[in-house]
Amino acid sequence: MPAEYGWGPAFTEYAAKIAVEFAGAQQEGEALWVAECGGRLIGSVMLCQSGEAGEGQVRLFLVEPDYRRCGVGSALMKTVLDKAKELGCTRLMLWSAEPLTDAIRLYECLGFHITERVKNTEWRPDGDPVYEIKMVKECL
């Protein structure tokens, strides 16, 4: 995904740090789901604690380009929403980025709304900004 959007090593390091922290200190109620097709990993998503009471965080949601708009992302997100509800979360939040239009459209269809927009000049090697957006879904 980084190359797809012109993002460089800084983004890869950021995503890897999230994954390593999750693997090393997974807390109760946190989970990782993957989607496979023919033994190939085609998507993933994590449900983590956000640090706020009653709030979960969706992290590292990814669907490979050839499998987008085929229901893979919807199925992964439905799994996250169901688990968050089962755990008693009353709110979910996530961070995305403006170039991820398909993901943002899916989040909006699922009831998430944008609450914050932050300029990031670290992810692209050329220094051009990427706008990160925070999205929230209330009342699961």
UniProtKB/TrEMBL annotation:
Keywords: Transferase. InterPro entries: Acyl_CoA_acyltransferase, GNAT_dom, NAT_camello-type. PANTHER family: GNAT FAMILY N-ACETYLTRANSFERASE (PTHR13947), LD18367P (PTHR13947:SF37). The keyword Coiled coil does not apply. GO terms for molecular function: N-acetyltransferase activity. It comes from Megasphaera stantonii. Gene3D superfamilies: 3.40.630.30. Residues 1-137 form the N-acetyltransferase domain. The keyword Cytoplasm does not apply. This is GNAT family N-acetyltransferase.
